[in-house]
Write a structure and sequence with these properties.
Blueprint lengths: L9 H14 L9 H7 L3 E5 L8 E6 L4 E5 L4 H17 L1 H4 L7 E2 L9 H14 L2 H7 L5 H8 L3 H12 L2
Parallel strand pairs: 1-3
Antiparallel strand pairs: 2-3, 2-4
Helix pairs in contact: 1-5, 3-5, 7-8
The structure holds zinc ion.
């Protein structure tokens, strides 16, 4: 049954992420969400969404327990998509099987208002840029060099720096 009064639970998100990083002993960037997903038994398939469907970044298919990613997108965006959809796969299975679930489009970014989308975005942010890793590298590095190091976009690095350090 769906929890219609669902509110984002960021403590839970962070604890799921911490558990994953510990389980696979991920200690240095870049974090590879494809490897982590596959290790958890979640398939990751890079596919050609033909025609109008090319606007799709990706989605999670509950029945197949697999994430489908647009193979024509930039690698950084693919990484974000896999991390975001892995959040749904690991935290939101019931919701992802419902008609409320929404696929991730290319033109939508970090602005999901839905609490499940907020959790999936937070999951991706904490998974790809864990606080303990950011803490080792952020001082003396530009957002651009951190973006290369963590293999995420510059806006995501800036969001993470603002969130963790208020800079
Ligand atoms: Zn989503």
């Amino acid at each position: 049954m769906l929890d219609t009064a669902h509110k984002p639970d960021y403590q839970r998100v962070k604890s799921v992420v911490r558990g994953l990083l510990a389980e696979f002993d991920v200690t240095i960037p870049p974090v590879n969400p494809v490897e982590i997903a596959r290790s958890k038994g979640v398939g990751v398939k890079f596919v050609d969404f033909a025609g109008d469907a090319d606007r799709i970044s990706g989605f999670y298919d509950c029945d197949e327990n697999a994430i489908y990613v647009n193979k024509h997108e930039f690698p950084l965006r693919q990484t974000f998509t896999v991390a975001h959809e892995l959040g749904h796969a690991l935290m939101h299975k019931d919701w992802a099987a419902s008609e409320d679930y929404k696929i991730l489009f290319r033109d939508s970014d970090y602005d999901g208002n839905d609490s499940y989308e907020k959790e999936a975005n937070a999951f991706a942010a904490h998974l790809l840029v864990p606080r303990f890793m950011l803490g080792e590298y952020w001082e003396g590095n530009t957002a651009e060099s951190l973006s290369r190091l963590f293999a995420v976009s510059v806006p995501m690095i800036k969001n993470r720096l603002a969130f963790e350090y208020g800079v």
